[in-house]
Amino acid sequence: MKCKLAILSLFFSIVSLAQSDVKGTMKTEIVQKHKLGYALHIPADTKEKKPLLIFLHGSGEKGTDIEKVKVHGPFKYINTHELDAYILAPQCPENEYWDEEVLHRLILKIQKENNIDANRIYLTGLSMGGWGAWNLAFAHPETFAALVPIAGFVDRVPMIEDCKIKNIPTRIFHGLLDDVVNVDYAITIYKKLKKCNANVELTIFDDAGHDSWSRVYDNQEIYDWMFKQIKNK
Questions:
Q1: Which of 17, 70, 175, 184 sits in a 20 to 30 Å window from 202, CA-based?
Q2: CA neighbor of 165 nearest in space, from 141, 147, 148
Q3: pLDDT-derived band of residue 177, with 50, 70 and 90 as boundaries?
Q4: What is the pTM of this model?
């Protein structure tokens, strides 16, 4: 019995001696390529710097047919009205979602190639585009002079870091009867933002479902409000 105990003790001693911790580092580079189509409306007079209005569409307009991005929002509005601004409408590829860093690269490209007032860049979006607008604003709050998300889901990070966009005038719109994106998202983020952003308002349309955007984008009022906003230098 003593012999067995000795052998067992020796076995565990060997196992114990064989164990060790390893520390190290690793360097790697992950390269991702993205292709993003877009429509860009250029105002008639480009001699002076003009504002840039960025519109993010919903999930129904994904794909490669760029005409889809003109079905709703500012591009639809300028069919019958004039807006003295650049209007940028990217198109999200099929099977993808809005990527805030890709969108930011696109904005920088458009700024570089056009006579845009960097203090008057406005961001809006509907449904999936509302979600994308929230994420883009939180990723690059220094870029935007105003934010108008409509019927958009709100991720956990904006809910936590709400005061990160405290300097961006914000108008939130949602339909009370929305059965795609619950109105509670709009109410919750509004309450959080209100604590640190004095220039934030929430409008809930009692009779609207998911399409709470048509009455917003078809009205000159929202454009007039946005174009009055100038980013603090």
A1: 70
A2: 141
A3: very high
A4: 0.86
